[in-house]
Specification:
With about 500 residues, the chain is an alpha+beta fold. The chain is built from 20 helices and ten strands. Helix content is about 50%, strand content about 15%.
Length: about 500
Protein backbone atom coordinates (compact mmCIF):
# COMPACT_ATOMS: atom_id res chain seq x y z
CA UNK A 1 0.00 0.00 0.00
CA UNK A 2 1.50 3.34 -1.05
CA UNK A 3 1.47 6.25 1.38
CA UNK A 4 -1.42 8.72 1.27
CA UNK A 5 -0.45 12.25 0.11
CA UNK A 6 -0.36 13.58 3.70
CA UNK A 7 2.18 10.98 4.83
CA UNK A 8 4.13 11.19 1.56
CA UNK A 9 4.63 14.91 2.23
CA UNK A 10 5.81 14.15 5.78
CA UNK A 11 8.27 11.57 4.42
CA UNK A 12 9.75 14.09 1.96
CA UNK A 13 10.16 16.61 4.78
CA UNK A 14 11.79 14.12 7.16
CA UNK A 15 14.13 12.81 4.45
CA UNK A 16 15.30 16.33 3.64
CA UNK A 17 15.99 17.04 7.33
CA UNK A 18 17.89 13.76 7.69
CA UNK A 19 20.14 14.58 4.73
CA UNK A 20 20.74 18.09 6.04
CA UNK A 21 22.16 16.59 9.24
CA UNK A 22 24.58 14.46 7.23
CA UNK A 23 22.80 11.11 7.42
CA UNK A 24 23.52 8.82 4.48
CA UNK A 25 21.09 6.00 3.66
CA UNK A 26 19.72 3.74 0.96
CA UNK A 27 16.37 4.72 -0.61
CA UNK A 28 13.58 4.08 1.90
CA UNK A 29 10.22 2.60 0.87
CA UNK A 30 7.44 2.97 3.44
CA UNK A 31 4.34 0.81 3.58
CA UNK A 32 1.38 1.52 5.85
CA UNK A 33 -0.30 -1.54 7.41
CA UNK A 34 -3.03 -2.22 9.93
CA UNK A 35 -2.01 -3.86 13.19
CA UNK A 36 -2.84 -7.40 12.00
CA UNK A 37 -0.68 -7.18 8.89
CA UNK A 38 2.10 -5.43 10.79
CA UNK A 39 2.08 -8.23 13.37
CA UNK A 40 2.25 -10.76 10.54
CA UNK A 41 5.31 -9.06 9.05
CA UNK A 42 6.90 -8.74 12.51
CA UNK A 43 6.32 -12.43 13.19
CA UNK A 44 8.44 -13.22 10.12
CA UNK A 45 11.24 -10.96 11.34
CA UNK A 46 10.23 -8.25 8.88
CA UNK A 47 10.27 -10.53 5.82
CA UNK A 48 6.75 -11.49 4.71
CA UNK A 49 8.17 -13.83 2.03
CA UNK A 50 10.09 -15.98 4.53
CA UNK A 51 9.98 -19.80 4.60
CA UNK A 52 7.02 -21.42 6.41
CA UNK A 53 7.47 -22.66 9.96
CA UNK A 54 5.25 -23.01 13.02
CA UNK A 55 7.39 -20.69 15.16
CA UNK A 56 6.31 -17.72 13.03
CA UNK A 57 2.69 -18.59 13.76
CA UNK A 58 3.44 -18.76 17.48
CA UNK A 59 5.17 -15.39 17.31
CA UNK A 60 2.15 -13.91 15.53
CA UNK A 61 -0.22 -15.22 18.20
CA UNK A 62 1.94 -13.66 20.90
CA UNK A 63 2.01 -10.30 19.13
CA UNK A 64 -1.75 -10.36 18.55
CA UNK A 65 -2.51 -11.09 22.20
CA UNK A 66 -0.05 -8.46 23.36
CA UNK A 67 -1.78 -5.88 21.19
CA UNK A 68 -5.30 -7.00 22.19
CA UNK A 69 -4.51 -6.71 25.91
CA UNK A 70 -2.68 -3.41 25.51
CA UNK A 71 0.67 -4.85 26.58
CA UNK A 72 2.65 -3.99 23.44
CA UNK A 73 2.35 -2.14 20.19
CA UNK A 74 4.65 -2.08 17.18
CA UNK A 75 5.14 1.49 16.00
CA UNK A 76 7.70 0.82 13.28
CA UNK A 77 9.80 -1.80 11.59
CA UNK A 78 12.67 -1.34 9.17
CA UNK A 79 14.64 -3.87 7.13
CA UNK A 80 18.37 -3.76 6.37
CA UNK A 81 18.15 -3.91 2.59
CA UNK A 82 18.84 -1.81 -0.52
CA UNK A 83 16.34 -0.23 -0.80
CA UNK A 84 15.33 -0.22 2.86
CA UNK A 85 11.77 -1.34 3.53
CA UNK A 86 9.92 0.21 6.47
CA UNK A 87 6.42 -0.36 7.81
CA UNK A 88 4.12 2.15 9.50
CA UNK A 89 1.13 1.39 11.72
CA UNK A 90 -2.04 2.68 10.09
CA UNK A 91 -3.70 3.92 13.30
CA UNK A 92 -0.75 6.06 14.45
CA UNK A 93 -1.28 9.79 14.79
CA UNK A 94 0.71 12.11 12.52
CA UNK A 95 3.14 13.01 15.30
CA UNK A 96 3.88 9.29 15.77
CA UNK A 97 4.43 8.84 12.04
CA UNK A 98 6.93 11.70 12.11
CA UNK A 99 8.81 10.12 15.02
CA UNK A 100 8.83 6.76 13.29
CA UNK A 101 10.06 8.12 9.95
CA UNK A 102 12.86 10.08 11.60
CA UNK A 103 13.77 6.98 13.60
CA UNK A 104 13.75 4.83 10.45
CA UNK A 105 16.03 7.14 8.46
CA UNK A 106 18.60 7.02 11.26
CA UNK A 107 18.39 3.20 11.33
CA UNK A 108 18.94 3.12 7.57
CA UNK A 109 22.00 5.35 7.95
CA UNK A 110 23.34 2.95 10.57
CA UNK A 111 22.68 -0.12 8.38
CA UNK A 112 24.48 1.42 5.43
CA UNK A 113 27.52 2.81 7.24
CA UNK A 114 28.27 0.65 10.28
CA UNK A 115 31.13 -1.74 9.46
CA UNK A 116 29.44 -4.71 11.15
CA UNK A 117 26.66 -4.57 8.55
CA UNK A 118 29.08 -4.18 5.63
CA UNK A 119 29.15 -7.94 4.87
CA UNK A 120 25.38 -8.46 5.04
CA UNK A 121 23.34 -9.24 1.94
CA UNK A 122 21.77 -5.96 0.78
CA UNK A 123 19.21 -7.87 -1.31
CA UNK A 124 18.10 -10.09 1.54
CA UNK A 125 14.38 -9.61 0.95
CA UNK A 126 14.83 -11.30 -2.45
CA UNK A 127 17.07 -13.96 -0.94
CA UNK A 128 14.45 -14.73 1.73
CA UNK A 129 11.89 -15.32 -1.02
CA UNK A 130 14.37 -17.67 -2.69
CA UNK A 131 14.82 -19.55 0.58
CA UNK A 132 11.05 -19.90 0.96
CA UNK A 133 10.73 -21.31 -2.56
CA UNK A 134 13.36 -23.94 -1.87
CA UNK A 135 11.80 -24.97 1.46
CA UNK A 136 8.35 -25.20 -0.17
CA UNK A 137 9.84 -27.43 -2.86
CA UNK A 138 11.36 -29.76 -0.26
CA UNK A 139 8.05 -29.90 1.62
CA UNK A 140 6.24 -30.90 -1.56
CA UNK A 141 8.83 -33.58 -2.26
CA UNK A 142 9.54 -35.00 1.22
CA UNK A 143 6.49 -33.99 3.26
CA UNK A 144 5.76 -31.04 5.53
CA UNK A 145 6.32 -32.88 8.81
CA UNK A 146 9.72 -34.26 7.80
CA UNK A 147 11.07 -30.94 6.55
CA UNK A 148 9.59 -28.90 9.38
CA UNK A 149 11.00 -31.33 11.94
CA UNK A 150 14.46 -30.93 10.44
CA UNK A 151 14.06 -27.13 10.43
CA UNK A 152 13.24 -27.38 14.16
CA UNK A 153 16.59 -29.06 14.80
CA UNK A 154 18.46 -26.51 12.68
CA UNK A 155 16.83 -23.49 14.35
CA UNK A 156 17.92 -24.67 17.78
CA UNK A 157 21.53 -24.41 16.54
CA UNK A 158 21.29 -21.10 14.66
CA UNK A 159 23.39 -19.27 17.27
CA UNK A 160 26.35 -21.63 16.79
CA UNK A 161 28.09 -19.34 14.31
CA UNK A 162 31.15 -17.11 14.40
CA UNK A 163 30.04 -13.50 13.70
CA UNK A 164 33.67 -12.38 13.40
CA UNK A 165 34.57 -14.96 10.75
CA UNK A 166 33.42 -12.63 7.96
CA UNK A 167 36.17 -10.18 8.91
CA UNK A 168 38.99 -12.52 10.03
CA UNK A 169 40.81 -15.19 8.06
CA UNK A 170 40.76 -18.19 10.39
CA UNK A 171 41.63 -20.97 7.94
CA UNK A 172 45.41 -20.82 7.84
CA UNK A 173 47.73 -22.83 5.61
CA UNK A 174 49.49 -25.91 6.98
CA UNK A 175 52.43 -24.92 9.14
CA UNK A 176 55.80 -25.71 7.53
CA UNK A 177 57.11 -26.85 10.92
CA UNK A 178 54.73 -29.81 11.14
CA UNK A 179 56.29 -33.13 12.10
CA UNK A 180 57.60 -35.07 9.06
CA UNK A 181 55.89 -38.36 8.38
CA UNK A 182 57.86 -41.49 9.20
CA UNK A 183 58.76 -43.94 6.44
CA UNK A 184 58.96 -47.71 6.64
CA UNK A 185 62.29 -49.03 7.94
CA UNK A 186 64.14 -51.84 6.19
CA UNK A 187 65.74 -54.49 8.39
CA UNK A 188 69.51 -54.87 8.09
CA UNK A 189 70.58 -57.83 6.03
CA UNK A 190 73.22 -59.01 3.60
CA UNK A 191 72.50 -58.18 -0.01
CA UNK A 192 71.75 -61.76 -1.07
CA UNK A 193 69.19 -62.13 1.79
CA UNK A 194 67.48 -58.74 1.25
CA UNK A 195 64.51 -60.04 -0.78
CA UNK A 196 63.76 -62.64 1.88
CA UNK A 197 64.11 -60.41 4.98
CA UNK A 198 62.58 -57.25 3.42
CA UNK A 199 60.07 -58.52 0.83
CA UNK A 200 58.37 -55.76 -1.28
CA UNK A 201 54.88 -56.53 0.06
CA UNK A 202 56.16 -56.09 3.65
CA UNK A 203 57.49 -52.59 2.87
CA UNK A 204 54.18 -51.66 1.19
CA UNK A 205 52.18 -52.86 4.20
CA UNK A 206 54.39 -50.88 6.57
CA UNK A 207 54.01 -47.73 4.45
CA UNK A 208 50.25 -48.11 4.42
CA UNK A 209 50.12 -48.65 8.20
CA UNK A 210 52.22 -45.54 8.85
CA UNK A 211 50.07 -43.48 6.47
CA UNK A 212 46.89 -44.56 8.25
CA UNK A 213 48.46 -43.76 11.62
CA UNK A 214 49.42 -40.27 10.41
CA UNK A 215 45.86 -39.65 9.22
CA UNK A 216 44.46 -40.70 12.60
CA UNK A 217 46.79 -38.28 14.40
CA UNK A 218 45.90 -35.39 12.10
CA UNK A 219 43.59 -32.94 13.86
CA UNK A 220 40.13 -32.65 12.38
CA UNK A 221 39.50 -29.74 12.20
CA UNK A 222 43.08 -28.50 12.31
CA UNK A 223 42.06 -25.76 14.77
CA UNK A 224 38.94 -25.38 16.94
CA UNK A 225 36.19 -23.62 15.02
CA UNK A 226 33.27 -21.57 16.38
CA UNK A 227 31.28 -21.88 13.17
CA UNK A 228 29.63 -25.12 14.19
CA UNK A 229 26.96 -24.84 11.46
CA UNK A 230 29.58 -24.58 8.72
CA UNK A 231 31.37 -27.67 10.07
CA UNK A 232 28.09 -29.61 10.13
CA UNK A 233 27.23 -28.52 6.59
CA UNK A 234 30.62 -29.64 5.26
CA UNK A 235 31.09 -32.92 7.11
CA UNK A 236 27.72 -34.29 8.29
CA UNK A 237 26.26 -37.24 6.33
CA UNK A 238 23.19 -35.26 5.27
CA UNK A 239 20.95 -35.59 2.25
CA UNK A 240 21.27 -32.77 -0.27
CA UNK A 241 17.99 -31.12 0.76
CA UNK A 242 18.98 -31.25 4.43
CA UNK A 243 22.34 -29.68 3.69
CA UNK A 244 20.59 -26.91 1.77
CA UNK A 245 18.10 -26.24 4.58
CA UNK A 246 20.94 -26.03 7.12
CA UNK A 247 22.79 -23.60 4.83
CA UNK A 248 19.63 -21.45 4.67
CA UNK A 249 19.43 -21.30 8.47
CA UNK A 250 23.14 -20.41 8.64
CA UNK A 251 22.87 -17.67 6.01
CA UNK A 252 19.95 -16.03 7.79
CA UNK A 253 21.73 -16.33 11.15
CA UNK A 254 24.70 -14.39 9.76
CA UNK A 255 22.34 -11.77 8.32
CA UNK A 256 20.68 -11.13 11.69
CA UNK A 257 23.88 -11.40 13.79
CA UNK A 258 24.99 -7.73 13.40
CA UNK A 259 21.62 -6.58 14.71
CA UNK A 260 22.28 -8.49 17.91
CA UNK A 261 25.82 -7.12 18.10
CA UNK A 262 24.74 -3.47 17.75
CA UNK A 263 21.34 -3.28 19.49
CA UNK A 264 22.33 -0.52 21.94
CA UNK A 265 24.18 1.51 19.32
CA UNK A 266 21.56 1.11 16.61
CA UNK A 267 18.61 2.07 18.80
CA UNK A 268 20.58 4.81 20.51
CA UNK A 269 21.60 6.30 17.15
CA UNK A 270 18.01 6.24 15.85
CA UNK A 271 16.68 7.75 19.09
CA UNK A 272 19.34 10.46 19.06
CA UNK A 273 18.39 11.59 15.56
CA UNK A 274 14.62 11.30 15.85
CA UNK A 275 14.72 13.43 19.00
CA UNK A 276 16.96 16.02 17.30
CA UNK A 277 14.89 16.20 14.11
CA UNK A 278 11.61 16.38 15.99
CA UNK A 279 12.63 19.03 18.52
CA UNK A 280 14.64 21.19 16.11
CA UNK A 281 12.76 20.89 12.81
CA UNK A 282 9.49 18.96 12.73
CA UNK A 283 7.26 19.57 15.76
CA UNK A 284 4.32 21.94 15.70
CA UNK A 285 3.10 23.58 18.88
CA UNK A 286 0.11 21.24 19.01
CA UNK A 287 2.33 18.15 18.87
CA UNK A 288 4.81 18.94 21.65
CA UNK A 289 2.92 17.26 24.50
CA UNK A 290 2.13 14.10 22.51
CA UNK A 291 5.75 13.87 21.34
CA UNK A 292 7.10 14.28 24.88
CA UNK A 293 4.71 11.60 26.15
CA UNK A 294 5.58 9.04 23.47
CA UNK A 295 9.32 9.75 23.45
CA UNK A 296 9.49 9.42 27.23
CA UNK A 297 7.87 6.01 26.91
CA UNK A 298 10.59 4.97 24.47
CA UNK A 299 13.48 5.88 26.76
CA UNK A 300 11.83 4.91 30.06
CA UNK A 301 13.79 2.36 32.09
CA UNK A 302 11.93 -0.35 33.96
CA UNK A 303 13.34 -1.70 37.19
CA UNK A 304 15.88 -4.42 36.56
CA UNK A 305 15.87 -4.11 32.75
CA UNK A 306 18.35 -2.55 30.35
CA UNK A 307 16.72 -0.18 27.86
CA UNK A 308 18.98 -0.04 24.77
CA UNK A 309 17.24 3.12 23.54
CA UNK A 310 18.02 4.98 26.77
CA UNK A 311 21.59 3.77 27.27
CA UNK A 312 22.46 4.24 23.60
CA UNK A 313 21.10 7.76 23.19
CA UNK A 314 22.58 9.00 26.48
CA UNK A 315 25.99 7.59 25.62
CA UNK A 316 25.98 9.19 22.16
CA UNK A 317 25.04 12.52 23.74
CA UNK A 318 27.80 12.13 26.31
CA UNK A 319 30.38 11.39 23.59
CA UNK A 320 29.25 14.43 21.60
CA UNK A 321 29.47 16.66 24.68
CA UNK A 322 32.90 15.34 25.70
CA UNK A 323 34.42 15.83 22.26
CA UNK A 324 32.86 19.29 21.93
CA UNK A 325 34.44 20.33 25.23
CA UNK A 326 37.71 18.46 24.77
CA UNK A 327 37.10 16.14 27.70
CA UNK A 328 39.36 13.42 26.35
CA UNK A 329 43.05 12.74 25.85
CA UNK A 330 46.04 12.55 28.15
CA UNK A 331 45.70 15.95 29.85
CA UNK A 332 42.08 15.36 30.80
CA UNK A 333 42.63 11.77 31.93
CA UNK A 334 45.53 12.82 34.19
CA UNK A 335 43.56 15.65 35.80
CA UNK A 336 42.65 14.56 39.34
CA UNK A 337 40.85 17.72 40.45
CA UNK A 338 37.11 17.02 40.29
CA UNK A 339 36.17 20.71 40.00
CA UNK A 340 38.50 21.18 37.05
CA UNK A 341 37.20 18.05 35.33
CA UNK A 342 33.58 19.18 35.69
CA UNK A 343 34.37 22.66 34.37
CA UNK A 344 36.69 21.41 31.58
CA UNK A 345 35.85 23.07 28.26
CA UNK A 346 38.36 23.64 25.46
CA UNK A 347 35.64 24.46 22.88
CA UNK A 348 36.95 21.83 20.49
CA UNK A 349 33.65 21.34 18.63
CA UNK A 350 34.47 17.78 17.51
CA UNK A 351 31.35 16.11 18.90
CA UNK A 352 29.35 15.63 15.69
CA UNK A 353 32.35 14.29 13.82
CA UNK A 354 33.14 11.90 16.66
CA UNK A 355 29.69 10.34 16.94
CA UNK A 356 29.67 9.66 13.19
CA UNK A 357 33.05 7.97 13.61
CA UNK A 358 31.74 5.86 16.51
CA UNK A 359 28.65 4.96 14.48
CA UNK A 360 30.87 3.67 11.70
CA UNK A 361 33.37 1.48 13.52
CA UNK A 362 31.91 0.23 16.84
CA UNK A 363 29.65 -2.55 17.97
CA UNK A 364 28.00 -2.67 21.41
CA UNK A 365 31.02 -4.22 23.13
CA UNK A 366 33.55 -1.70 21.82
CA UNK A 367 31.02 1.12 22.28
CA UNK A 368 30.67 0.35 25.99
CA UNK A 369 34.32 -0.59 26.49
CA UNK A 370 35.72 2.59 24.92
CA UNK A 371 33.17 5.23 25.86
CA UNK A 372 31.40 4.26 29.09
CA UNK A 373 33.12 6.40 31.72
CA UNK A 374 33.02 6.59 35.49
CA UNK A 375 31.45 10.07 35.27
CA UNK A 376 28.68 8.68 33.03
CA UNK A 377 27.94 5.83 35.45
CA UNK A 378 27.81 8.24 38.37
CA UNK A 379 25.58 10.74 36.55
CA UNK A 380 23.09 8.08 35.46
CA UNK A 381 23.17 6.20 38.78
CA UNK A 382 24.09 2.86 37.21
CA UNK A 383 24.37 -0.24 39.38
CA UNK A 384 24.39 -4.03 39.32
CA UNK A 385 21.81 -6.20 41.02
CA UNK A 386 21.64 -9.82 42.17
CA UNK A 387 19.16 -12.20 43.70
CA UNK A 388 19.16 -12.24 47.50
CA UNK A 389 18.07 -15.72 48.69
CA UNK A 390 17.43 -14.39 52.20
CA UNK A 391 14.79 -11.90 51.11
CA UNK A 392 13.70 -13.65 47.92
CA UNK A 393 14.18 -10.36 46.02
CA UNK A 394 16.55 -8.90 43.46
CA UNK A 395 18.54 -6.14 45.15
CA UNK A 396 21.28 -3.66 44.27
CA UNK A 397 24.60 -5.40 44.82
CA UNK A 398 27.22 -2.95 43.59
CA UNK A 399 27.59 0.63 42.34
CA UNK A 400 31.31 0.73 41.55
CA UNK A 401 32.20 1.69 37.99
CA UNK A 402 34.47 -1.30 37.46
CA UNK A 403 31.78 -3.80 38.46
CA UNK A 404 29.04 -2.07 36.44
CA UNK A 405 31.14 -1.94 33.29
CA UNK A 406 32.42 -5.49 33.67
CA UNK A 407 28.91 -6.88 34.18
CA UNK A 408 27.57 -4.97 31.19
CA UNK A 409 30.40 -6.13 28.91
CA UNK A 410 29.93 -9.71 30.07
CA UNK A 411 26.24 -9.55 29.13
CA UNK A 412 27.02 -8.15 25.69
CA UNK A 413 29.96 -10.37 24.72
CA UNK A 414 28.79 -12.90 22.13
CA UNK A 415 25.28 -11.46 22.68
CA UNK A 416 25.19 -13.16 26.07
CA UNK A 417 25.45 -16.61 24.52
CA UNK A 418 27.99 -19.30 25.50
CA UNK A 419 31.07 -19.86 23.34
CA UNK A 420 30.91 -23.31 21.75
CA UNK A 421 33.64 -24.72 19.48
CA UNK A 422 34.14 -27.84 17.40
CA UNK A 423 37.32 -29.43 18.71
CA UNK A 424 37.40 -32.86 17.09
CA UNK A 425 35.34 -34.42 14.33
CA UNK A 426 36.82 -37.86 14.91
CA UNK A 427 36.81 -38.08 18.69
CA UNK A 428 38.17 -41.37 20.08
CA UNK A 429 38.84 -42.32 16.44
CA UNK A 430 35.18 -43.38 16.21
CA UNK A 431 33.74 -40.57 14.08
CA UNK A 432 32.23 -38.92 17.17
CA UNK A 433 31.94 -35.14 17.43
CA UNK A 434 33.57 -33.30 20.32
CA UNK A 435 32.37 -29.79 21.18
CA UNK A 436 33.92 -27.58 23.82
CA UNK A 437 32.22 -24.94 25.95
CA UNK A 438 34.57 -22.06 26.73
CA UNK A 439 33.79 -21.70 30.43
CA UNK A 440 33.70 -18.07 31.65
CA UNK A 441 32.36 -18.64 35.14
CA UNK A 442 28.73 -19.15 34.09
CA UNK A 443 27.67 -22.80 33.72
CA UNK A 444 25.45 -23.99 30.88
CA UNK A 445 21.80 -24.65 31.56
CA UNK A 446 21.71 -28.41 31.56
CA UNK A 447 18.30 -28.71 29.90
CA UNK A 448 19.36 -26.38 27.08
CA UNK A 449 22.69 -28.16 26.68
CA UNK A 450 21.09 -31.59 26.41
CA UNK A 451 18.41 -30.46 23.98
CA UNK A 452 21.10 -28.87 21.81
CA UNK A 453 23.19 -32.04 21.89
CA UNK A 454 20.17 -34.03 20.75
CA UNK A 455 19.75 -31.83 17.70
CA UNK A 456 23.46 -31.80 16.88
CA UNK A 457 23.43 -35.61 17.06
CA UNK A 458 20.41 -35.71 14.77
CA UNK A 459 22.46 -33.86 12.16
CA UNK A 460 25.83 -35.54 12.83
CA UNK A 461 24.15 -38.99 13.05
CA UNK A 462 26.89 -40.30 15.34
CA UNK A 463 27.54 -39.79 19.08
CA UNK A 464 28.16 -36.18 20.12
CA UNK A 465 30.16 -35.02 23.16
CA UNK A 466 30.31 -31.66 24.93
CA UNK A 467 33.20 -30.69 27.19
CA UNK A 468 32.05 -28.20 29.82
CA UNK A 469 32.18 -27.41 33.54
CA UNK A 470 29.48 -28.56 35.96
CA UNK A 471 29.69 -27.69 39.67
CA UNK A 472 33.21 -26.30 39.08
CA UNK A 473 34.40 -29.66 37.75
CA UNK A 474 35.26 -30.51 34.13
CA UNK A 475 32.63 -32.82 32.68
CA UNK A 476 31.98 -34.55 29.40
CA UNK A 477 28.30 -34.79 28.45
CA UNK A 478 27.67 -37.32 25.70
CA UNK A 479 24.61 -38.27 23.69
CA UNK A 480 24.70 -41.47 21.70
CA UNK A 481 21.35 -41.02 19.99
CA UNK A 482 19.56 -43.05 22.64
CA UNK A 483 20.86 -41.97 26.05
CA UNK A 484 22.93 -39.31 27.80
CA UNK A 485 26.14 -39.99 29.68
CA UNK A 486 27.99 -37.57 31.95
CA UNK A 487 31.54 -38.32 33.08
CA UNK A 488 34.13 -36.39 35.02
CA UNK A 489 37.23 -35.84 32.93
CA UNK A 490 40.72 -34.43 33.23
CA UNK A 491 41.85 -30.98 32.21
CA UNK A 492 43.11 -32.29 28.87
CA UNK A 493 39.53 -32.67 27.64
CA UNK A 494 37.73 -29.88 29.49
Amino acid sequence: MSLPPRLAAIQSEIEAHARSYGLDFFPVLFEILDYRKLNQVAAYGGFPTRYPHWRFGMEYEGLQKGYAFGLQRIYEMVINNDPCYAYLLECNADVDQKIVMAHVYAHCDFFKNNVWFSRTNRKMIDEMANHATRVHRYMDRHGVDKVEGFVDACLSLENLIDPHSLFIVRERPVRPTEEPRRSARRMKSKEYMSDYINPPDYIARQEKRLEEEAERKKSFPEEPTRDVLKFLIEYSPLENWQRDVLSIIREEAYYFAPQGQTKIMNEGWATYWHSKMMTERCLTDAEVVDYADHHSGTVATQAGRLNPYKLGVELFRDIEDRWNRGRFGKAYEECENLRERLAWDEHRGLGREKIFEVRRFCNDVTFIDNYLTEEFCREHKMFTYDYNPKTGLYQISNRTFREVKQRLLFQLTNRGLPFIQVVDGNHRNKGELLLKHQYEGVPLRQDYARDTLKNVQRIWQRPVNLSTVVDEKPRLISFTGEAFEETEVGDQVA
